[in-house]
Amino acid sequence: MSQMAAGLIANCLREKPNAVIVLPTGKTPEGMYQALIERYCSRLFDTKRLTLFQLDEYPGMSEQDERSCFYRLRHDVLEPLEIKQHQIVRLHGDASEPDEECRRYDQALQRAGGFDLAVLGLGMNGHLGLNEPPSDCCVPTRVVELSQATKASMTYWSHVPEQALTCGMAQLLQAKRIVLLVAGEHKRAILQKTIQGPVTPDVPASYLQRAGNVVVLADAAAWPLHIQQEAF
Ligand code: PGA
Predict the structure, then answer these.
(1) Closest ligand 1 atom to the C-alpha of 122?
(2) Known catalytic residue: 127?
(3) Mutation test residue for ligand 1: of 27, 187, 203, the one with most atoms within 8 Å of CB
(4) pTM for the structure as a whole
(5) What is the pLDDT of residue 90?
């Protein structure tokens, strides 16, 4: 899964060196980033011209804070792939006006022509980015209230945040290509709902059924063979 995902990102950048992309943080993409760094070190693609948008962030959080999404992004992706500050469009957690920050982000994305590639993880409650249920396909980048399910998964926090800034569903679903990464048995039920269940704001990822050019990369624990046979 990680190798295929890294290959898709590398191919995207070979075909379009100035691609506009958005990448996830979290546990699932860790292997993908290792595989991507190996490809970068072998000079299979270049990062000098890409533009990277930050997917989500927690409010009031500075980039020095190890729990911030940007800290993880910088550590896992930006530094090893030598992506420079001017190539990044941030969602600043410590912005004094978070709503304005979200509008600025969407305007920057519009000017950039939208995402060429969005790589996303799948939340236990079906969120994409941090578009918590209920989120329909049209909601823009904005401040959201975190659900109990998401807060329960944030075991590394002593004081769990109540809100987040997230790239909107509208922006993500319009990406020219979307790659959804799903790993682990604990994601099996929500992946099945995402792919085979009704399209509903209660499972935001279910809108991927209507989006064009979606690739789902799941490991065998998340999508075992017997489910594949039933589905296809
Ligand atoms: P995870 O997060 O990769 O840490 O499971 C995925 C998500 O919540 O989007």
Answers:
(1) 9
(2) yes
(3) 27
(4) 0.96
(5) 97
Residues composing the chain: 232
Fold of 2-231: Rossmann fold (3.40.50)
Q: Tell me the two tokens of residue 168.
A: 């909107």
| Beta strand 88-89 pairing with 117-121 | unpaired
CA atoms in the 13 A half-sphere facing the CB of 192: 17
Burial 51-67 (b: 16+ CB within 10 A, else e): bbbbbbbbbebebeeee
Distance 186 CA to ligand 1 centre (A): 11
CA 219–ligand 1 middle distance (angstroms): 14
For residues 110 and 148, the answer to whether their CB atoms sit within 8 Å is no
Is 131 a catalytic site residue? Answer: no
Nearest to 216 by CA among 172, 177, 189: 177
Lining residues, ligand 1, CB within 6 Å: 26-28, 121-123
Q: Which residues pair with 118 in a beta bridge?
A: 22, 178
The mean pLDDT values, 10 residues at a time, for the chain of 232 residues are 97 98 96 98 98 96 90 97 98 95 98 98 97 98 96 84 97 98 97 97 98 95 78 52
